[in-house]
From TrEMBL:
InterPro entries cross-referenced by the UniProt entry: DUF1285, DUF1285_beta_roll_sf, DUF1285_C, DUF1285_N
Occurrences of domain DUF1285 (ranges): 20-86, 87-186
Ranges in a coiled coil: none
Name of one Pfam family that matches: DUF1285_C
Membrane-spanning intervals of the chain: none
Protein name from the UniProt record: DUF1285 domain-containing protein
Length: 190
């Protein structure tokens, strides 16, 4: 008989101290778990919010995406969970001032404590969200998992952005571009 999931998670946390290599684990599918990651970033298990942040962080560390489905994966178990939008929210941003060429770096922090640079490996992409759908920034966090930017962080990045005339039609009034790690990211048009 397999160990309970929680005991497996404790062992994995001790062994890997961070993010286990879930992309290398392919156990048999065990079924659907009554867990939902809501669009506001809350993790709900069997109808109740998981309020212990270390437990949420632990679950997030073994989250894997395959196609349009999300799974909690250990070396011996694979449970499908439901994700309303994306599994992470970007809740903080920090900026390292650039050099003479303006090449600084923006660091983003998720609601589960991941700190990622805004760069080529972790690009920002505008996608529709909400009702009515508006273009909102999403960022690649790790292994195909995305984070949606909170409104506060988005406004902070807009403060750091550079307004420019668009280079190609259809002509808009202005575009907002953000530089980070030698890359440029479109934050929006107005």
């Amino acid at each position: 008989m397999a160990e309970p999931l929680f005991q497996q998670l404790q062992k994995l946390q001790e062994e890997f101290r961070g993010h286990p290599p879930v992309d290398k684990w392919n156990p048999d599918f065990c079924g659907d778990m009554d867990m939902v990651i809501q669009s506001d970033g809350r993790w709900i298990h069997e109808g109740s919010e998981i309020k212990r942040q270390p437990l949420v962080n632990l679950f997030a560390s073994i989250l894997k995406r395959e196609g349009r489905h999300y799974y909690l994966v250990t070396p011996v178990e694979k449970w499908r969970v439901r994700v309303e939008d994306v599994p992470f929210l970007i809740t903080q941003a920090a900026r390292e001032e650039g050099d003479a060429n303006g090449c600084g770096q923006v660091l983003l922090t998720t609601n589960t404590g991941d700190v990622i640079p805004l760069d080529k490996a972790h690009p920002l992409e505008l996608k529709p969200f909400g009702d009515p759908p508006l273009p909102i920034p999403y960022v690649a966090v790790r292994r195909g998992l995305l984070g949606r930017m909170s409104r506060d962080v988005y406004y902070q990045l807009i403060d750091w952005a550079e307004a420019r005339e668009p280079q190609a039609p259809p002509a808009r009034l202005c575009q907002l571009w953000l530089k980070s790690s030698g890359e440029e990211f479109l934050l929006g048009e107005y």
